[in-house]
Amino acid sequence: MKTVVHLSDLHFGREDPAVVDALLGAVSAIAPSVVVVSGDLTQRARRHQFVRARRFLDALPFARVVVPGNHDVPLFNVFARVLDPLGGYRRHVTADLAPTFVDPPVVVVGLDTTRPSSIKAARVHTRDVDRICAYVQRFDAGAVKILVAHHPFDTGSHAALETLTRGGIDVILTGHLHVSAASHTASRHNLSGRGAVVVEAGTATSTRLREMTNAFNVVRVDPQSIVVERHDWGRNTGFEIADRQQFERTAAGWEPRL
Predict the structure, then answer these.
(1) Residue 132 is part of which domain span?
(2) Taking the model in full, what pTM does it have?
(3) At what angle do helices 126-136 and 158-166 cross, to 10 degrees?
(4) Which are the contacts of 211, defined by CB distance < 8 A and separation ≥ 6?
C-alpha cells in the first residue's frame, strides 16, 4: 500500500507557526511516498511568502506534486497579474505547472486551475483535460490515477470532471474551500458513469479557518482499495486522525465501502 499526504491552502503570510511545526512532524512521522499540495501556498503571492513556503517544502524530504492556487497569483500588483501571474510561483516553488509522479500503483498528475483574470474562479482548459487523460491511459488498469488541482469541480467544470473520470482518473484531490471532505462523484456531483473519489483538504496551516480546524489528508492506496484519513489539529493534542473512509474498486469504478 502506498501513502499520499494531501496538503492544501498553506497561506504562508497568514500561517500559524505552531501548526507549521506540528505539521512537519506529523508528515515526517507518516513518511509518505509522495506529498501533494493543492494550491494557495501563499496569502498574497509576495516574495517573502514564497520564500517561507519554499522553506517549508524543503523541510519535507519526500517526493512532491505541487500546483498553484488563486492566492499564488498577485492580487494588488496588476502589472504582474497581467504579464506574469505565476512568476513568483515559478521562481520559488516550481516552473512545472503539469507535474507528475509515478510509484506503482500510484500515478499522480497535477492541473493548474488558476485564472488570473478572476480573483477566485477556476479555469480548466480542454487541452489540459485531454493531456491528462492521454497520460493516465498509458498505465495499466490496476494503477490508481490521482489528479491534483486547487479548485473543486463544483461549478462550471462538470464536463471536464466527467471527461476526466471516464478517461481513467480515480481520485481527485482539491482544496480552496478550507473544508475537509471525502465523497464519491455520483453523490458529490450527481455524475453517472464511472465513479471516482473526490477528496478536499482544509487549510493545513493558515489562521484563515472557516468553521473547521486546520487539517490535512492521508490517502492510502492499493489497486483495489482507497482509504482516506482526515487528520485534525488540536492545540493540546497535535494532529490526530478524526475521520476515516474507505472506497473499493468495482466494475463501475470506485464505491464507498459501507
Answers:
(1) 2-256
(2) 0.95
(3) 20
(4) none
